[in-house]
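ARCHIVE CARD
Drawer: 12
Card no.: 0347
Subject: one protein chain, sequence and derived structure
Cross-reference: see card 0346
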Amino acid sequence: MGRLLESFLAFAKGERAGGLWNLLAPLGGVASMGTRCRNFCYDHGLFAQWEMPLPVISVGNLTLGGTNKTPFVAAITETLLAAELSPGIVSRGYGGSARGVVLVQGGRGERSEVGDEPLLLSKMLPTVPVAVATDKIRGVIALREQGCRIVVADDAFQHRRMGRDADIVLIDATCPFGNGRHFPAGILREHRRALERASLVVITKADQISQEVLKHLEEGLEKFVPREHLFRSGIVLKEWFCFDEGRWRRSSEPPCRGNAFAFSAIGSPRSFIHVLEELGIKLVGTCSFRDHHHYTAEDLAAVEARAGERGAEILVCTEKDTYNLPAGYVPSLPLWYPRVGTVIENPFRFWRALKEILRPGIIVASNGYGEDAIGALLAARVRDRFPGAAVSAFALVGHGAAYLKQDIPVCSPPAETPSGGIVKYSWREFARDLRGGLLTHIGRQLRRWGHLRGRIRSVLCVGDVYLLLQVLAGQGQIPLLLATAKSVHLGGHWRIERFLLRCRARRVWTRDEATLEQLLRSRVAATYGGNPIMDLVEENVSGERNGTHLSPGARNGELAAEKHHPWEGTVQWVLLLPGSRLRAYEDVALLLATAERLGERRSTKGDVAVLRFLLVVAPTLEPLRLVVEATRRGWAERRISRCGRNVLVLEKEMSWGRLSVELSDESVAKVASGARLVIGLGGTANQICAGLGVPVVSILEKGKLVQKKLLRDAEVLVPSSPEDLSEAAERILEDAALHAAMSDAGKRAMGGPGALDDVVTYAAESLGWALRHDVYEELCAFLAKEELK
C-alpha cells in the first residue's frame, strides 16, 4: 500500500490527525447531504423501492469495507441451508467486469469477471448459487428462477431500490465509524442515524476490544437501535489451508511455529493480524494492499523479498487473497491461509429476532368508512390465506371499527372530523374539517407511517390516489391499490393521477372494465377482477362463507338472483340508511320524517300493514345516540325478540296507526337482500344496494350527483325533504315496471364480485407472499427443533 493511501486511511479511520486531509471535509459534507437527500426520497416515495418476489435478507454496513461481511453472509446462509430453505446469495462482485447477471456455483468462475468475494462465498458454500449483478434486483430475480426460496444480499444496505425483508447492519468493533466523517473525508457511507432503519445491528470482532470499550460502543448504538436488536459476533478459525504442488489442500495441522510474514488486500488488515496473533502465529512482518487488490508478479516478488529480509519461514494471506493471486504463481516460501468464520453470541436470540422480522407484515389501508368495510374483508381474507402473517389495518378516517369487528388490529391514530372524513365536494365542509383539526390528523398519520417504515413488507390501499400519496409520503413503499373511488363513469382519473399510478403503484385494480381501459391507455399496471364493493355483497349473501351458495346459473362472478332472508315474504321492507359519517345523527331525523310521510301516504291506500322500515346502523355510529335523536322527535323505544335476537324498535303513534322502525347493526349487504327499496344517504351502502338490484332514493347534493353518474338509472335523486323522498319512494313501490328497470340498471352498473380474491392471488404468486409465509413457517419449525437439541 502506498504511503499516500496509508496516510489517508489513517486519517479516515481516526487513527491520526488529518493535516491537509482536513481539506476534504467540505466534500464529505456535500456527500453526506447528498446521501441524506437520497434517503429522504426513498423514505417518502420520491424514489421507488420495489418488492422482491421472495424474501431477502440484506447484510451491509455504514462504512467502507472491513466489517467481516463475507464470513457473516456465509454464516447466515449456512443456517438457512441447514433449514432446507434453498438460499441464494446476490453480490455486486466488486472488482469484476461482469455486466448483467452471472451465476457462480462451486467456486467456478473467472475472478476478472465476477470479483473475489463471490468466488470465495461460492467456494465456501458449493451448493448455493451466487448471482453476481450490478443491479441486485435482476440478481434476485435470477436466483428465483434458479429455485431459490430466500436470498442473502451481500453489501445491500445502501441499495435501497431493492426491497428487503430484513436489514442486518454490521459495525466493526475495532473501528466503528472512523473519524466520524462521510467519504471522502472519512469512511462513513451514511450518517449513524441511518441505523434507525436497520432491522438488526451486529457488532463484529467484539472479541478484539476490551469489555469497557464494547459497552461504551453499545450505549452509543442504543440511541438508534433497540437493545433487543443489538448483537455481538467474533471471528473463529475453522481450518488451515496450504498451497502444495499447484493447489490448495486442507491441513490437519496449523503452520509451523516459525517466523511468518503476512500480506493481505482486505478492508481491515489490522483485524487479520490480530487473528493471526491470537492463533499463535509469530509474525516478523506484514504488508497490506488496498481492498480487492489484484496482485501482480512484481507485488508478490516484493512481498517475498521483504519476507526474506525479515527471516520469515512461511507466508500467510487471507482466503480472499487467494482469488487475487496471478495465474501460475508459485511462492518461494510455504504459503498458508486460515479459513475463518463468524460466531454470533447467543445465536438463538439472534435467530429468534431475525425470524420475527421475516414474519410477513401486511397492512391494509383505507380512507373512508365504505373503504374500511372492503378493507376489513380484504384483511380477513389475507389473514385466512396466510395465517402466520402479521396482518393489520390503517384507517385514515375514524377508529377502524370495521377492522376491529373482524379482529384485525388497527395501528392508525383515531381521526374524527366534523364531516366524518375528507369532504371533496363542499368547500364549506372542507373548511369545517380544517378547523376541526384535519391537518393535525394528517400529521399524526404521517408520523405513524414513519414509525412503521421498514417494519412492514407490503401495503394494500383501498381507496383513491390521496391514500396512495399518504402511504408513499409516510413510509415510501410502493403499494398495491384497489381503486374503489374512481370510475370513468364518475369522470375517471385525472391526468396527474394516472401519472402517479403509472409511476408509484405496483398494481391497480379498477372497479369496472371501462376504467381499466382508461388506465391501460396511460400505461398503468392495471387489471379488473370484479367490483370490490360487490365482494361485500358476496361475503354476506351468496358465498359459501355464510352457508349459502351461488346459483348454478350465475356467470362471470355475478350474484345469484335467489336470496334467502328471514324477513322476506308479503311484507315490503324499506331500508333507511343514514350513512356512516357523523352527520348521520342529524340525517336520521330526515329519514324518520320520510318514514312517517310514506306511512301516511300508504295508509290512505289501505296497505300500510305490509310496509316495514329497517334503519341500518353503521359500525361507526352509536345506536343509543340515534335513539336519543329520535326520542326528541316524539319516537319511543321498545325491544322485541326476532329470530332469537333482541331487536331495538322505534315506535310512534300516528293518526292512522302505529309506525315502527327496527334498528339493525347487520351489514348493509346482508339486510339489503330482503329489501324492496332503499332510502339512503350513504355512499358505498347505496352502491351495495343498487348492485343487489334494490332501487335507491337519495337526496340532491353534490356528492350524490357524482354517485348518480355511477348508479345512473338505479338511483333517483330528489330535494332533501320528507315530502319529496316519500313521493319518490311511493312511485317506485307502486310501479312494478319502474322497479324492475331500476333493479336491472343497478346490477349492470355495479357488476359482479371477485376483486379481493384476485388481489390476494396476485400478491401470493407475483409478490411472493405465499413463499414468504412458507419460509417463515419452516424457519420457525427448524429453530424450534434446534432449541430442543
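Annotation on reverse: Confidence is low (pLDDT under 50) at residues 542-569. Residues 584-603 form the longest helix (20 residues).
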